[in-house]
Amino acid sequence: MGKLSVFNFVTLNGYFKGPKEDISWHRHGGEEAEFSENSLNSGNTLLFGRKTYEMMESFWTSQMASENFPVVAKGMNKSEKIVFSTTLKKAEWSNTKLVKKNIVKEIKKMKKIPGKNLTILGSGSILTQFAEQGLIDEYQVMVDPVVIPKGTSIFKGIQSTLSLKLTSTRTFKSGVVLLCYQPMDQ
Questions:
Q1: For 70-99, what is each residue's pLDDT tens digit?
Q2: Where in the sequence is the domain holding 57, given as residue range(s)?
Q3: What is the CATH number of the domain that holds 52?
Q4: Is the pTM of this model over 0.70?
Q5: How many domains does the chain have?
Q6: What is the DSSP code string of the chain?
Q7: What confidence category does residue 41 fall into, taking pLDDT thresholds of 50, 70 and 90?
């Protein structure tokens, strides 16, 4: 059975994006880039909502990404990806499948495939939907030592309590801390 994990970076006050989708506050130094490179080597299928997909596609296919983060750019572009959207007409980023409906049913089906692991990147509304259904096996939250005045909560709109247990931590030289959690019932 496959595992569904989430990777998000957040501010100290719990925002995963600022106004107008701003993530410029995120520290992506050497250690964080190395972590991203190693994570991409896992072969997980990457999952996105439409907004995150459009932002990621725009950046990781750019010349700037190739020059500044060549290993991560290559990994992002070759990874298998799924975008969940009812409004997107087509997904043109390499190796991307578009799923327009029944996303919970689709994830349940994908999780049944042995060895097929999935990772949600960003995508707060997708994260919330899957968390509410108890489908997420691991939460990886990279906390940046920054506070921004406004933003969107990582769990915006959550309707039920999520009880999680801490499974590991990692502190980066930049002050960024990676916290890994699993649902209490696992």
A1: 888 888 888 899 999 999 999 999 999 999
A2: 4-183
A3: 3.40.430.10
A4: yes
A5: 1
A6: ---EEEEEEE-TTSEEE-GGG--TT----HHHHHHHHHHHTT-PEEEEEHHHHHHHHHHHTSHHHHHHSHHHHHHHHHS-EEEE-SS-----STTEEEE-S-HHHHHHHHHTSTT--EEEES-HHHHHHHHHTT---EEEEEE-S---SS-EETTTT--S---EEEEEEEE-TTS-EEEEEEETT-
A7: low
